[in-house]
């Protein structure tokens, strides 16, 4: 995993940092000389916590940005390294807030805005895909993306999507999510299918008409061509429909 950190954030983050840093009581109380908590130690605590929160992966690249603190801060030096945790309701990636705290010799707490951005190889469309088109190996590519913005999920392996069908028209460059794909439709409504039922030593086959679309393993209704009865069965990979005797 590659981790990149920066202390300088965007201007809005700097402004937000000042407001957050002054929230906890007593943060501007004077302290002198060696009694002052080094700002760099506070930032390093937040940075180390952010790196631990991002986790590790062989293919992962992580960008960590930590907001600046108010230069007027004069906190009593913590007797031990400060601790850190996510602020209540904060996210584990993207724009977030880290709560840095001390309990000895005095208690103080402040909130440090941060951005934790994980970049991973994900499946992206190489070419346009029409609705219900089966996705092939040449239709996709693997591309590194910031995954915190992919709120609908993503795929990391080409094998996860090859052979699936698109739910709607998709454009090149789109990151594929589970909302975009479904199992390939094997049976179409109105299609003539083979109904079969099997048990040891006996297989019965007959013709029928599918009354519903169906993917592999899905239960659909079929009208028996001979008896006109409507039965229910499970779609097989071959396109036949398995029914109970």
From TrEMBL:
GO terms for cellular component: periplasmic space. The keyword Signal applies. The keyword Lipoprotein does not apply. Involved in the assembly process of the P-ring formation. It may associate with FlgF on the rod constituting a structure essential for the P-ring assembly or may act as a modulator protein for the P-ring assembly. Its main location: periplasm. This is Flagella basal body P-ring formation protein FlgA. Pfam families: ChapFlgA, ChapFlgA_N. NCBIfam families: flgA_cterm (TIGR03170).
């Amino acid at each position: 995993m590659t981790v990149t950190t920066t202390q300088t954030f965007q201007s809005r983050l700097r402004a937000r940092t000042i407001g957050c840093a002054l929230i906890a009581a007593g943060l501007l109380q004077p302290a002198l000389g060696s009694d002052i908590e080094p700002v760099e130690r506070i930032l390093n605590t937040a940075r180390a916590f952010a790196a631990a929160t991002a986790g590790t992966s062989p293919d992962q690249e992580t960008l960590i940005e930590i907001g600046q603190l108010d230069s007027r801060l004069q906190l009593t030096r913590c007797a031990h390294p400060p601790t850190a945790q996510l602020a209540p309701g904060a996210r584990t990636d993207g724009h977030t807030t880290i709560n840095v705290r001390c309990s000895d010799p005095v208690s103080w707490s402040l909130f440090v805005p941060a951005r934790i951005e994980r970049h991973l190889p994900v499946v992206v469309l190489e070419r346009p895909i029409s609705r219900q088109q089966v996705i092939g190996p040449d239709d996709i590519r693997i591309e590194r993306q910031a995954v915190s913005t992919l709120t609908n999920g993503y795929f990391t392996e080409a094998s996860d999507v090859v052979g699936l069908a698109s739910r709607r028209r998709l454009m090149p460059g789109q990151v594929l999510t589970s909302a975009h794909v479904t199992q390939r439709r094997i049976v179409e409504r109105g299609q003539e299918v083979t109904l079969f039922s099997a048990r040891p030593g006996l297989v019965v086959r007959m013709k029928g008409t599918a009354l519903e679309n169906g993917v592999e393993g899905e239960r659909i209704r079929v009208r028996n061509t001979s008896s006109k009865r409507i039965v229910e069965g499970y779609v097989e990979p071959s396109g036949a429909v398995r029914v109970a005797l």
